[in-house]
């Protein structure tokens, strides 16, 4: 059974940094487009960043451009999200997503990121 396990969330002060990780199991990781989404209380889930197969392409939500960086290590079946200059509006549960075509679409359980002084 495919599993995605996120880690690295926590409490950080405004202007601080965190690095999220998502490890995949029981999946041919390199085949999948990997994404990070987030959902704040009372808001819809939004796309944060996407990285294509073999890391060939990346894209970001407008609110995180220039501050967040997505990367992947196919040897470790892991995708990362480096988050710099965090702001209170970045507070959310962050979810990892793995997608291949229209059929295979998997989600992690989420990791909480709280930005507060």
Explain this structure.
With 117 residues, the chain is mainly β. The chain has no helices and 11 strands. The strands form 2 sheets. Strands 2, 4, 5, 6, 9, 10 and 11 form a 7-stranded mixed beta sheet that branches. A 4-stranded antiparallel beta sheet has the order 1-3-8-7, with no helix packed on it. The termini are far apart. The relative contact order is 0.32.
Judging from the principal axes of the Cα atoms, what is the shape?
globular
Total strands: 11
Structural class: mainly beta
Q: What portion of residues is helical?
A: under 10%
In the predicted model, the low-confidence regions spanning at least 5 consecutive residues are: none
User: How many angstroms does the end-to-end distance come to?
Assistant: 40 Å
Radius of gyration: 13 Å
Largest sheet: 7 strands, mixed
User: How many helices does DSSP assign?
Assistant: 0
Q: What is the residue-mean pLDDT, rounded to a whole number?
A: 95
Query: Element order, helices and strands?
Result: EEEEEEEEEEE
The proportion of residues in beta strands is over 45%
Quick structural summary:
The chain is mainly beta and 117 residues long. It contains no helices and 11 strands.
Secondary-structure topology with pairs:
Layout: E1 3-7, E2 10-12, E3 18-25, E4 33-39, E5 46-51, E6 58-60, E7 68-73, E8 78-83, E9 92-100, E10 104-107, E11 111-115
Parallel strand pairs: 2-11
Antiparallel strand pairs: 1-3, 3-8, 4-5, 4-9, 5-6, 7-8, 9-10, 9-11
Summary tags:
117 residues, seven-stranded mixed sheet, mainly beta
């Amino acid at each position: 059974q495919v599993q995605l396990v996120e880690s690295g969330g926590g409490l950080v002060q405004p202007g601080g940094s965190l690095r999220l990780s998502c490890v995949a199991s029981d999946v041919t990781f390199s085949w999948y487009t990997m994404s990070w989404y987030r959902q704040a209380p009372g808001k819809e889930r939004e796309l944060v960043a996407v990285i294509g197969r073999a890391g060939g392409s990346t894209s970001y939500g407008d609110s995180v451009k220039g501050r967040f960086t997505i990367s992947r290590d196919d040897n470790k079946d892991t995708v990362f999200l480096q988050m710099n200059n965090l702001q209170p509006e970045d507070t959310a549960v962050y979810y990892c997503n793995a997608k291949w075509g229209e059929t295979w679409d998997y989600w992690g359980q989420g990791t909480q990121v709280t930005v507060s002084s």
